[in-house]
Amino acid sequence: MDDPGYFDEGDLVAVLTAQPLDRLLDYKAPEGGCFQGAFVEVPLGPRKVLGVVWGPGRGDYDRSKIRSVIRVLDVAPMRAEMQSFLGRAADYTLTPMSAMLRLATRAPGLGEPPSMRKIYRLGDTTPDRMTKARTRVLEALRDYGGLAFTLKELAEMAGVTPSVVKGLAKQGAVREEDSPRDLPFPHLDPDLPGKVLTEDQQVGADALRAAIRSGRYGTTLLKGVTGSGKTEVYLEAVAEALRMGRQALVLLPEIALTAEFLTRVEARFGARPAEWHSGATMTERRRIWRMVGQGEAQLVVGARSALFLPFRNLGLIIVDEEHDTSYKQEDGVLYNARDMAVLRAAICGARVVLASATPSLESWANAEAGKYDRLELTARFGAAVLPEMRAIDMRTEKMPAASWISPSLRQTVTDRLGKGEQSLLFINRRGYAPVTLCRACGQQIGCDHCDARMVEHRFLKRLMCHQCGETKPIPEICPSCKAEDRLAPVGPGIERLAEEAEATFPDAKIAVLSSDMFGSARALKAKIEEIAEGDADIVIGTQLVAKGHNFPNLTLVGVIDADLGLQGSDLRAAERTFQLMRQVAGRAGRAERPGTALLQSFQPEHPVIRAILSGDETGFWKAEAAERQAAGVPPFGRMAGIVLSGTDAGQVFDLGNAMARNDMAIRQIGAQVFGPAPAPIARIRGRHRVRLLVKAPKGAALQEAISRWIAPLRLKGDLRLSVDVDPQSFY
Ligand SMILES: [Zn+2]
Ligand SMILES: [Zn+2]
Questions:
Q1: Residues 417-467: pLDDT tens digits?
Q2: Which among 186, 201, 458, 557 could bridge 432 via Cys, Cβ 3.0 to 4.6 Å?
Q3: Helix 97-104 and helix 80-93: axis angle, to 10°?
Q4: What is the C-alpha separation between 72 and 29, in angstroms, rounded?
Q5: Nearest CA among 577, 572, 528 for reference residue 550
Q6: Which ligand has its closest atom nearest to the C-alpha of 466?
């Protein structure tokens, strides 16, 4: 073994596999040797599994019993920086390495050799006879321009059997071609002319370009109100990274809704980037994984898991809408993509840009402390200004029973209808009504498996549990007292608000935007485009509409329940309400028309509502920071949530109590354990849940202490323990 990164045939190597084993396994390097980081196939019992050569073997087993690596896979070896990233991310999130490796190899068929496959694209002849199925195939192909698909993909997209596609291919209406499985991505040209930037944007773009040219790690908080041109500015940073021959990654929260974004990228660089998200086909995932590793994908636009792609020379990570809660993965490996982006960039000498109109308090505090650079964009495009914001004091409005649109709001919407302008009515609640109550016995219909109420979804004609997804038909008799026709919806959801709007504004064209009302991301995208083009007088929407869509004709936002987010016990409740309200209000009045945002509230004097209305962001962040500092909670202290669960409530509590008694490891670092207490949702899918919270001073070695604390535990039966470092939500 001359080269430290190379192992000769027969040398002992330690291999990390994605199997749930808590250690590396020793193997002998195969014929021809292998590099450190090589992806390999190894025998494990009777099976063959995927693994990565992690380093030299330990050699503490009987050498004669050690088996050989079966073969080295034909993909680029894992780079040392990726090994380091996975190791440090595992330490930070207290995740086993095998689970980290699974995150980093989420592409099928890595072991297969490059091969050819049949693909299908639009042909140039018309079929002799059209059927509905045939029309669907041709329409699907036309929808995607010149793109080609595998037989299975195309048949699935069109909802037809493969024989329909084959039939069209025989006639030449669809062309069948041979194609290598994994093609490089088209070249992106950073030197095409970008959009003309305003002075403000130019200053921001110059600063980011200079930072990227330095080739060193650093993080910039790019703050700008909706419409201030954040995207244009950070696309110039992407251009600079590409010029330097480095790769760039843009993370977006709502990946299904990026059509508008991809169009902008294409306009800027002349081709589409690689798109990594859960909706991508298996074929596409495999192609991206390989091409990213070979440096033949310059730019990836993706969801949070794109952070674990094997970039060869990553120079820039953009985290757009960095405050968005969807960056926190809440099951499996519990990580926050924003924080992991910073970790990854620090390891590979890349720049991070955190973009937001309403940054998280964490990022705000890091910028205040000088850890992050800060860039602020103020001017909006054109002459438009931020909307005028006012509260409607619901205590003084005359509200008929079961109605939620106040007379003041109704009047303003009517005024907009008269002018031919769009209004948005916002409520952050899916379904028809959050509670279904029996008026005979007072019982609320709950989920059979969770401590959660069932939410009526009239659109789906079902009751649904938002915790576990369980649905059941809306009953006609009360399950508790058997009274007939006494069940009544209580409170508004988006569907009920839509019903009220239809009755209040009978002549208006109303569009409802809620993620669960569309069968596919494509259908939703089409609806949003229709609305943007003016094909609705009133838009009724959930959180979905807050996320960066452009509705140029929209001049009024009415928030139905501005108090909704303030009720939780979550330490981030105020921050989230502030961000959400600012984002929603930002939908009003783009282009040249000024907008108005009206917030219906029963507590307009609440400090958060007042801060939203006054637009005094700095004041809000300072007050919020001071409160958290006084309480010693994030970002001024550290927290971890430990959730214990099991089918036997007694056992779960016993374990929690035992942990709380034996908390020496935690006390040693000056931290405290709170609980055990029933988790805010005390039962999910039939499992009882108990929570312990650990609160530690900033700078304490929290993960290490937790590891020592939980290491001696032996979980009996179906008991489970999960650790959430830096929890984002508390359920
Ligand atoms: Zn009843
Ligand atoms: Zn449930």
A1: 999 999 999 998 888 998 899 999 998 998 888 888 888 988 888 898 887
A2: 458
A3: 130
A4: 9
A5: 528
A6: 2
Q: Contact 703/94 with Cβ under 8 angstroms? A: yes
Query: What are the tens digits of pLDDT across the range 276-321?
Result: 887 777 778 888 999 999 899 999 999 899 999 999 999 999 999 9
Q: Which ligand is nearest to the CA of 452?
A: 2
Residues with CB under 5 A from ligand 2 (ion): 447, 449-450, 465, 467-468, 470
User: Is pLDDT above 70 for 73?
Assistant: yes
Determine which of 12-16, 185-189, 470-474, 577-581 has the lowest per-residue pLDDT on average. Answer: 577-581
CA Rg value for the chain: 28
Spatial separation of the C-alpha atoms in residues 568 and 506, rounded to whole Å: 36
- Which ligand is nearest to the Cα of residue 687, counting in written order? 2
Ligand 1 centre and the CA of 256: distance in Å?
41
Question: What's the gap in Å between 674 CA and the centre of ligand 2?
Answer: 27
Tens of pLDDT, residue by residue over 239-268, are: 999 999 999 999 998 654 567 788 889 999
The ligand that comes nearest to the alpha carbon of residue 437 is: 1
Residue 34: both structure tokens together: 């292998």
| Torsion angle of the four alpha carbons 307, 378, 242, 83, in this order, in degrees rounded to the nearest 10 | -20
Ligand showing the shortest atom-to-Cα distance for residue 449: 2
Q: Which residues surround ligand 1, an ion (CB under 5 A)?
A: 438, 440-441, 443, 478, 480-481, 483
Ligand 2 mean position, distance from CA 80 (Å): 43
CB 155 within 8 A of CB 168: no
d(CA 485, CA 497): 22
Q: Is 382 a residue whose pLDDT tops 50? A: no
Q: How many helices (H) and strands (E) does the chain have?
A: 20, 31
Record the tokens describing residue 337, joined without a space: 């993509």
Report how far ligand 2's centroid is from the alpha carbon of 471 (Å): 8
Q: State the Cα–Cα distance between residues 599 and 397, nearest whole angstrom.
A: 13
Q: How far is the CA of 479 from the centre of ligand 1 (A)?
A: 7
- Asked if residue 251 lies in contact with residue 302, where contact means CB atoms within 8 angstroms, the answer is yes
Q: How many angstroms does the Cα of residue 679 sit away from the middle of ligand 1?
A: 28
Span from the CA of 487 to the centroid of ligand 1 (angstroms):
7
Kindly indicate the confidence band of residue 384, based on its pLDDT and cuts at 50, 70 and 90.
very low
Q: How far is the CA of 643 from the centre of ligand 2 (A)?
A: 18
Residues 640, 13: Cα–Cα separation, whole Å: 36
In this prediction the pTM is 0.81
How many A from CA of 437 to the centre of ligand 1? Answer: 8
Q: Does the pLDDT at position 383 exceed 50?
A: no
Please report the DSSP string for 72-93 in residue order.
Answer: E-SSPPPPHHHHHHHHHHHHHH
Other CB atoms closer than 10 Å to residue 224's CB: what's the count?
22
For residue 344, pLDDT beyond 80? yes
CB 4 within 8 A of CB 43: no
Tokens of 342: 């910073």
* Contact criterion met (CB below 8 Å) for 479 and 463: no
> How far, in Å, is the centroid of ligand 2 from the Cα of 516?
17
**What is the CA(686)–ligand 2 centre distance, in A?**
8
Q: Say if residues 438 and 486 touch (Cβ distance below 8 Å).
A: yes
User: Taking the CB of residue 722, how many other CB atoms lie within 10 A of it?
Assistant: 14
- Say how many CA atoms lie within 13 Å of 403 toward its Cβ: 16
pLDDT at residue 27 in the model: 96
Closest CA to 190 of 211, 203, 205: 205
Predicted pLDDT of residue 337: 94
Ligand whose nearest atom lies closest to the CA of 467: 2
Averaged pLDDT of the chain: 88
